[in-house]
Amino acid sequence: MTRKMLAVAGLALAASASTALVPAAAQDKVSIVVNATQVFGTIDPARINDYTEYMAAVNLYDGLTTVAGDGSIVPQLAESWTVSDDNLTYTFKLKDGATFQDGSPVEASDVVYTLKRLLAINEGPSYLFSKLIDPDKLKAVDSKTVEIGLTKVYAPFLTTTPLILVVNEDEAKANSDEEWASDYIASHSVGAGPYALEDWKRGSQMVVERYADYHGGWDRGTPIDEIRFVITNDEATVKALATKGELGMSSDSQANETYEAIGAMDGYKLIETPTATAFYIKMNTKLPPTDDIHVRRAIAYATDYATIREAIYPGSELSGPMASAFADAYAGDLPTPEYNLEKAREELAKSKYAGQDITLTHSYVAGLSFEEDIALLMQANLEQIGVTLDVRPEPWNRITELAAKPETTPNTTQVFNGPSYPSPDSVFYVQYDSAASGTWASMEWLQDPEVDALIEDARTTTEVDKQNDIYKELQRKIVAQQPDVFMLVENRRYAASNCLQGYEFVPMMSWDTDFSRFSWDCSAE
Question: Exposed (0-12), middle (13-18) or buried (19+): which is 136, by Cβ within 10 Å?
């Protein structure tokens, strides 16, 4: 979560200026426009995979639990839970009064159906559960109690439970003849979340409407009644929406100039926060010439980190695969990445490709101006050490396709990755475990048995201090192999209406855009 980002040429707005949604304090209904830069590929919670899909999911569905701003797991559809002494059985008690958007109650049988469906479809978040949850040990004890049996100890299990996004079994079965109702759930929201799908024009916009009887309540102030997600990465379009007063909140992927321009407009503000999201150049360790560690180290030394962080995309230092937000598990003794062209030349001279013409393919998301700036800076720096960078901007869906095989994955690719669940495990398992190979998050193709073993050790270690020691060892081992250029930790920014209140960073992909946590108050303008 990574998130980021599919380029869309232009903007196909269904609403003209005369029909656009202009929030105003005097309106009974609060409607806002929210910008996203990547299309919603799916809204099926069994298939979600990137930041826009997670953004849809967190608004349309509720999980057994959710995540607080400090990263703690807190009740959502489940009001409480217990864990067996052997750490293999989790029992969740569902809260009374929670209903799906059709008004029917959320019951334990819906949770069982949701998990069996997720395991059967075997896409999206299923990688977290497919070898972990035993389908034969899923049990609705009664209408409000569900047992989940694991095949082995998995210490971070509770941190994944926000992704058990509960589906309305009866509605799904009543509207589809398919075994898992994939056709219906692909285009309808069948959850207990705060918003329901109202309209979806793929590639241009999605509209969601507030569910008035949402079990979480609407007691944070004046709620947001309607959200129109507008899909564009055209900077001029985003600024035009703000100029007209139509923009409720931008994406977090605009150029510096766009944030500054909107932030200077009357009625707008900038929201800025540190995050747990890292920005990498992922290097394909299976494809020549980045199969050579000295070439990878040369690329890292040829990266002008300060210019990228200070002039192109705001961020703080990243010394390894994980941001320091996971403080107890963070290895503070890692060396700070260094920009040094002389050392880059020395590393290149040590490689098996020394003396040869070296060309690297480099991909980034087409249409994102800051990623283009980084690519051009890398191209200029690498040219100084005798390396040619073949820059290939691609739409995000093409990048995910290329990531499926080592021979099609570019030598280098710019990728953001934030935790898809609030645990260091989401950094290591999702990116560096061999089981993740073939995904956009794992374009390094590291496939290292020692790394895999350490990840598995951390997953089965229930003593927190020992687990954190393993995470620190993982960071050191990964840095020693230099599978990535560790560019920065993202400082997230949004341009937003002054009326939009309640933003809080949440260390889980797109969970900070759960609009039931926001309110609308223009009195501070």
Answer: exposed
